[in-house]
Amino acid sequence: MNTNTPRRPARRRAATRLASLPLLGLAVGQAPVAAQSPKRGGSLSIALEVDVAGIDPLAIASFNDKQAGITVFDTLLDIDAKGKLQPHLAEKFEAAPDATWFKLSLRKGVKFHDDTPCDAQAVIEHFKRLMDPKSRYRWASDLAGIAAIEANGSHDLTFRMKAPSAQFLAVLADTSGMIVSPTAVKKHGEQFMANPVGTGPFVFKEWRRGSQVVFTRNSSYWKGPVHLDEVVLRPMPDEQTRIASLKAGNLDIAMNSPAKEVVEARSNKKLVIHDPGSLGTTFLMINLDQPDVSDPRVRQAMAHALDRDALSKVLSKGIAKVANTPFGSGLAAHEQVDGYPKYDPARAKKLLAEYGKPVKLKFASDSRPLSQLSAQLVQQMWKKVGIETEITPYEGVQLVRTAGLRQYQVMGYRWQGGIDPDRCVYMFFHSKGSSNRTGYNNAEMDRLLDAGRATMDPAERVKIYRQVSNLLARDLPYLFTSYFNNYSLMGANIRGVETVPDGLIRVRSVWKER
Question: Which of 7, 206, 420, 450 is within CB 3.0–4.6 Å of 167 for a Cys-Cys bond?
């Protein structure tokens, strides 16, 4: 997309829209406050579910990490309230009709917090770092299709791809697009994740592990005035503590709030519900190389034994919609699936009888109370059909690491999703996907995922991703439970929070009414 150039022929224009399938409407939970002039000053305190793993694209592994990331780093592109790609550090962007190259023009005059220029060479150095095999970048498959990156001037770049890559522009609005200072990387080396330097609206100040991460205003931010003096991210794993602190006025925003509190907040004039919608899902992830679950009959039995409507009623007061695909409600591929296993305990027992051996599962779960309750409910449902389950709780960061190392059998997990369907499936289910944590390997799936990257036709892509969902419904590396809405609760004096479907808080625009 290039919003500052003359109109191109229809076919060329269509190519620039390839990275984002149409999104459905996304609503805010309460009516917006009437427009007011922003006030400068104050500190914004945001509660996270867990501490961040590191403030560096190389360390980002979770939603919480991303919140820290977008506070200090800017992405090359961003998304708006409808999930459509917008210019950001790149003021112009364009795609080849066959998606084999992408051109970006960077904004001139933008500097990193260390006063070094954010130019084409800095961006190239950034991507070289991510693509270096020694970096072991978690999202390496996002960048595996890059053949070359060329500087066409001090602020112009061309990404040339090995094959058509319809999803690539969406990658630039995500973790890989968070541009870091090459100078700071050289200075801090492996300690860069604790000394991050970007071009973002806030400058890193300090990180007290397990307690808080503090950022101060970037007074020369390229996008215009930043209203707040300070942003403080506070890890609070206990949901009750998080909400109690919010109600007491010791917090301004509690991210990923539990459904019970969201329901209660509807009648609380001191709180505002922020509901940007859903791009991803919650699910039970299965390590297909482990005993028992390696047999498809066992996985099918596990799926048929789950009463997911009951799970939603207990865990989310019915707010969370039962999921049958990996594509959240904001994506066009949402619910495009045939034959996802329905709740059928009799069928589950029959499948287990055919398997003919006792099934004992080890269930890795987040240690937070709601996650433990979810695991216990699943345990009870499986027990009714003859499956024994041992639950092992993990602290959030440890759970993510355990998933990455594939040291589990069954795990409760979630993925916040991405603005392109590819972001919800390729890295997880392609045999060469960089985050394939289940060991899933299916030649037909590989073919479909590659085909999804090779066409720019939105209707054709929906057809392809329906077939992807059908394969997942048959092979069941994931047992989907619900679509993941990034509900946040905030004080009624918080203003300027943008409604963006990835659920992250763009702190540049936020201010406090005092």
Answer: 420
Grade residue 35 by pLDDT with cuts at 50, 70 and 90.
low
CA distance 69 to 453: 27
Q: Residue 45: which residues within 8 A CB-CB, separation 6 or more?
A: 232, 234, 250, 251, 252, 253
Q: Which sign, positive or negative, has the C-alpha torsion 79, 430, 327, 365? A: negative
pLDDT at 212 (0 to 100): 97
Integer Cα distance of 274 and 266 in angstroms:
11
Nearest to 415 by CA among 489, 323, 298, 301: 323
pLDDT band for position 110 (50/70/90)?
A: very high
> Residue 471, CB half-sphere, CA atoms under 13 Å: how many?
19
Could you identify the residue written with the tokens 């702190």?
A: 507
Q: Are 374 and 365 in contact (CB under 8 A)?
A: yes
Mutual orientation of helices 308-316 and 369-384 as an angle, nearest 10°?
Answer: 150
pTM beyond 0.70, yes or no:
yes
In this prediction, residues 126-134 reach a mean pLDDT of: 97
Tell me the C-alpha distance between 418 and 115, whole Å.
32
Residue count of the chain: 514
Query: What is the overall mean pLDDT for the chain?
Result: 90
Nearest 10 degrees: Cα torsion 239, 412, 428, 302: -150
pLDDT digits (tens, 9 = 90+) for 367-412: 988 899 999 999 999 999 999 999 999 998 899 999 999 999 999 9
CA–CA separation, 51 and 126 (whole Å): 25
Half-sphere exposure of 270 (CA within 13 A, CB side): 9
What distance in Å separates the CA atoms of residue 300 and residue 296, rounded to the nearest whole number? 6
* Phi–psi pair at 322, nearest 5 degrees: -60, 135
Q: What phi-psi label fits residue 496: left (phi over 0), alpha (psi between -120 and 50 degrees) or beta?
A: left
Is 70 exceeded by the pLDDT of residue 268?
yes
What is the distance, to the nearest Å, from the Cα of residue 445 to the centroid of all Cα atoms in its chain? 22
- Looking at residue 296, the DSSP 8-state letter turns out to be H
Taking Cα atoms as reference points, which of 50, 372, 21 lies closest to residue 209? 50
Summarize pLDDT for 322-373 with one digit per residue, the tens. 999 999 877 889 999 999 999 999 999 999 999 999 999 999 999 988 899 9
- The number of helices, as runs of H, and strands, as runs of E, in the chain is 15, 20
The alpha-helical segments, DSSP class H, found in 248-344 are: 259-265, 296-304, 308-316
